[in-house]
SGNH hydrolase-type esterase domain-containing protein (Canna indica), 472 residues
Amino acid sequence: MRPKIVLFGDSITEESFMEGGWGAALAHHFSRSVDVVLRGYSGYNTRWALTVVERAMEGVCPAGAVPPAAATVFFGANDASLPDRRSGFQHVPIPEYQSNLRALCTYLKERWPSTVVMLITPPPIDEDGRLKDASGDNSGLPERTNESAGAYAKACISVAEELGLPVIDVWSKMQQVPNWEKSCLRDGLHFTSHGNSVLLDEVLKKLADEGLSLDTLPPDLPLFSSIDPSDPLKSF
Amino acid sequence: MRPKIVLFGDSITEESFMEGGWGAALAHHFSRSVDVVLRGYSGYNTRWALTVVERAMEGVCPAGAVPPAAATVFFGANDASLPDRRSGFQHVPIPEYQSNLRALCTYLKERWPSTVVMLITPPPIDEDGRLKDASGDNSGLPERTNESAGAYAKACISVAEELGLPVIDVWSKMQQVPNWEKSCLRDGLHFTSHGNSVLLDEVLKKLADEGLSLDTLPPDLPLFSSIDPSDPLKSF
């Protein structure tokens, strides 16, 4: 039976199966060995995620089935919206963000003790891109800033360390890319194809660190290359 | 609990989550309402598929879980390989292809009576593209022809009619596209982005005909657009 990898997060997870998306690329990478299960909820912060996590995970792994091999928890981009600007209703203060992340990870680990729960920090923000995306908002101020996103990224890493969980610091990693503002982000927040590939590489590395790779996860049936043309049926 | 759509087929299914792929696009289209489950097996014909179908479907829907809403059965491109050319060991004669398709569909319908089982014919073949792809084969003859693929497509449609199942005639549909040989097929057999979109459109139409669309399949939790900014938590 194939293992599962669950992607739990906000819009950057929800849209991860669009063209060039990191979720689809992960599913393609593991096309013969893993079922990638999408649980992305556009606009959600950790407060809302915590309210729905039980319903979101319903049916991912029915009673008696093998628990997921891994789950990514990728929230913070909405929590980090500034409280006094147009997305203020999505804002969650850092102490509550941390306590919500702790509760989300604890919920998943209690439900599925063997599952690798992996945190992903919010991505960096290109404020110029956010301003250009702000139709109807004439304040001239971005609703998210890179500085705020960075504080949430640090807070996320600290929860991961406290809980002993792997974490991907996509906020820092992405900012190492030349011209990351435009090459990785299409609207100052959501990923371009290149941004998606930066995250995908990190997810694959981190999964491999946890023993989950094409070397360790067998194909679910014989690969074409292993089938003997002179007697194909003996392979099955 | 989200419904599932299972994609069962050969390489054109296995690679359907690569960039621009029809499987990933289907998963994106239904990102909040359906789990798309990939069961693509590169190189497989219906004879091999029939040998493994029980193992392939293991874990898709554990006992007690809701059966899949739909399953695509997309084989024939390998069965239609000509028997006396380099891919001859993948060839399956038409009468056996039909009897295997019947058995595959019957297996799925017996396992999951409520599931919409949908057949997809093999795609057309661009023989020039196959010749250019034939490294190491100096025969000058393509291992698949469009005429043969067309005969398998007709045979597939006839099985669907006999069993009363929906069928997508991608062999005919794709040949309505100007310059289909190069615009839809990248190596004479596998799909370009445009070829993928041709199939995706047909799959979405056929699913809608069977009552499976964004209008009928609800999002699994409140959409961001339905959340009241003045009191977000009351939505959950």
